From TrEMBL, chain A:
<dbReference type="Pfam" id="PF00005">
    <property type="entry name" value="ABC_tran"/>
</dbReference>
<dbReference type="InterPro" id="IPR027417">
    <property type="entry name" value="P-loop_NTPase"/>
</dbReference>
<protein>
    <submittedName>
        <fullName>ABC transporter ATP-binding protein</fullName>
    </submittedName>
</protein>
<keyword id="KW-0813">Transport</keyword>
<keyword id="KW-0997">Cell inner membrane</keyword>
<dbReference type="InterPro" id="IPR017871">
    <property type="entry name" value="ABC_transporter-like_CS"/>
</dbReference>
<keyword id="KW-0406">Ion transport</keyword>
<feature type="domain" description="ABC transporter">
    <location>
        <begin position="2"/>
        <end position="233"/>
    </location>
</feature>
<keyword id="KW-1003">Cell membrane</keyword>
<keyword id="KW-0547">Nucleotide-binding</keyword>
<dbReference type="InterPro" id="IPR003439">
    <property type="entry name" value="ABC_transporter-like_ATP-bd"/>
</dbReference>
<dbReference type="InterPro" id="IPR015853">
    <property type="entry name" value="ABC_transpr_FbpC"/>
</dbReference>
<keyword id="KW-0067">ATP-binding</keyword>
<keyword id="KW-0408">Iron</keyword>
<dbReference type="InterPro" id="IPR003593">
    <property type="entry name" value="AAA+_ATPase"/>
</dbReference>
<keyword id="KW-0410">Iron transport</keyword>
<keyword id="KW-1278">Translocase</keyword>
């Protein structure tokens, strides 16, 4: 069980801002830290891993206190047995895939290593160097390496953010599968709702300075009642005259939508726009 | 006709011995120092780094002069070195090694620090979360991924020691067989108006410098094509 109660200063472009967090995670639970960038999600992971020290507070895992600023306790990262999957993977470029995993093992165990390579479908790539792998393959190596150290807690920082959308969906399912099999207490940092709903059982929504909500993704992140008006956000691609009106084309995700608008004075090509769908018509609002 | 007699080969052997010992001492010394400069947090780092880099801009005779003064048995430090540690460093080979280590330090240190600083900090953090000690991280992660820097530093420090003149003349005095390295032997030949003898030393030193720089270029182009 992971217990966090801490205050830490987060450096932001607008200057340092204190973040206050109180969280408890049940054993075996998968918890997502969800929120906009710059809110302190990665910093929180680094504090849990022992790569940084909180300004004030306490971090405990089970019966072990990892950090207590009042009692001046700080267990170094290397003694915490925390598997950390870095956003940029941080694979050792001088080691082949197999050696990256072997280096992580607390005791050499060839069978376990082969099991992990099979679990993450890396066996055919075991003799390659990280720079010879694609983004998705590197991500799987990073996860396999974190598992190779037999961690008691797994931390994943934006595990899929560096991948293109199609690959992200496939790998998300694969990671979900692997996490189910290993059944580890896991903290996943993401700003992607797909990750949160697919990978996590509970979510902590971080807002500047605090945890704004904590619960299951459905309870916390789904709107309470269906609304007749739906707003999407997009990017204006083109504004063309169409008789007395204007034809505006907007990119929403990977799709485009063309609609008619009477007022395009505040719209600019390349600028974000809110698209409110109302029956058959759309209202465009610059944001 | 340029020909080296048996007695003339001796300064080359001495030069190679000095350069090899200096380089070995520098490898042992510079790795922990570079690690501290690249990853440490002490506010003293810029001052220490500047001190280490001073030989890059100082005339070698300045350094040689200060070392001569501080190692001289009439000075306090020289007397202490001789009485307490039994070290006689003026006009001796051991003195030359110490002078060369100080003088060639930046040539080993700079490529190492640059290579260490280029490593993504997440690599070191990842090794820490994997339970590795700082010594293991240095040996298995930092050094193998900074090996182009280590190689460049080793080659440069060795070559620079071979090319030393001011420090070795000041501190070593050019004692034949003991501290007279190739660059000083060349100088002595010119003083004695033996231009053919001087030429043979100069030609070997030029060829050596060319081979070293070519080697360095090859190391650099290899590390550019292979990032690991």
């Amino acid at each position: 069980m992971l217990n966090l109660a801490l205050t830490h200063t987060i450096p932001t472009p607008e200057g340092p801002r204190p973040l206050q967090v109180e969280l408890t995670q049940a054993p075996g639970e998968r918890l997502a830290l969800y929120g906009p960038s710059g809110v302190g999600k990665t910093t929180l992971l680094r504090l849990i891993a022992g790569l940084a020290r909180p300004d004030q507070g306490r971090i405990a895992f089970g019966d072990t206190v990892w950090c207590d600023t009042e009692r001046r306790v700080h267990v170094p990262a290397r003694e915490r047995r925390v598997g950390y999957v870095f956003q940029d993977y941080a694979l050792f470029p001088n080691m082949r895939v197999r050696d990256n995993l072997a280096f992580a093992q607390p005791h050499p165990d060839r069978n376990r290593l082969d099991e992990l390579l099979a679990l993450t479908r890396l066996a055919p790539l075991a003799d390659r160097y990280p720079q010879q792998l694609s983004g998705g393959q590197r991500q799987r190596v990073a996860l396999a390496r974190a598992l190779a150290q037999e961690p008691q807690l797994l931390l994943m920082d934006e595990p899929l953010s560096a991948l293109d959308p199609a690959l992200r969906v496939a790998l998300r399912e694969e990671i979900d599968d692997i996490l189910r099999k290993v059944a580890l207490t896991t903290v996943i940092v993401s700003h992607d709702l797909g990750d949160v709903f697919r990978l996590a059982q509970r979510v902590a929504v971080l807002e500047p300075g605090k945890v704004a909500a904590l619960g299951t993704p459905r309870d916390v992140l789904l709107p309470p009642t269906p609304s007749g008006r739906h707003a999407l956000s997009g990017i204006v691609l083109a504004i063309d005259p169409a008789d007395v009106l204007w034809r505006v084309t907007v990119a929403i995700g990977n799709d485009t939508l063309a609609t008619l608008s009477a007022d395009v004075e505040h719209l600019r090509v390349g600028a974000p726009v809110a698209v409110q769908l109302n029956g058959s018509s759309a209202v465009l609002q610059p944001v | 006709m340029i020909a080296l007699q048996a007695a003339d080969i001796q300064p080359f052997w001495l030069t190679l011995k000095l350069a090899t010992i200096t380089t070995l001492v520098l490898i042992v010394l510079a790795i922990p120092l570079a690690r501290w400069l690249a990853f440490g947090r002490s506010p003293l780092r810029p001052i220490i780094e500047t001190l280490c880099n001073l030989p890059l801009v100082l005339p070698p005779t300045v350094l040689g002069f200060y070392l001569l003064v501080s190692f001289s048995p009439v000075s306090f430090t020289g007397r202490w070195l001789q009485d307490v540690l039994g070290l006689k460093l003026v006009f001796t080979f051991s003195g030359l090694v110490i002078g060369s280590v100080i003088f060639s330090l930046p040539f080993m240190l700079q490529p190492l620090v640059a290579a260490f600083r280029q490593l993504p900090s997440n690599l070191i953090d990842a090794a820490r979360t994997l339970g590795k000690t700082e010594a293991t991280i240095l040996a298995r992660v930092i050094l193998p991924n900074a090996r182009a820097g280590l190689l460049s530093g080793t080659v440069l420090a060795f070559a620079h020691t071979v090319g030393e003149f001011g420090v070795v003349l000041m501190l070593g005095g050019g004692v034949t067989g003991d501290t007279q390295v190739a660059s000083i032997a060349l100088y002595r030949k010119v003083e004695a108006l033996d231009y053919a003898g001087a030429h043979s030393y100069a030609l070997v030193l030029v060829s050596f410098a060319f081979v070293v720089l070519l080697l360095l270029r090859l190391i650099q182009s290899r590390s550019e094509t292979r990032p690991c």
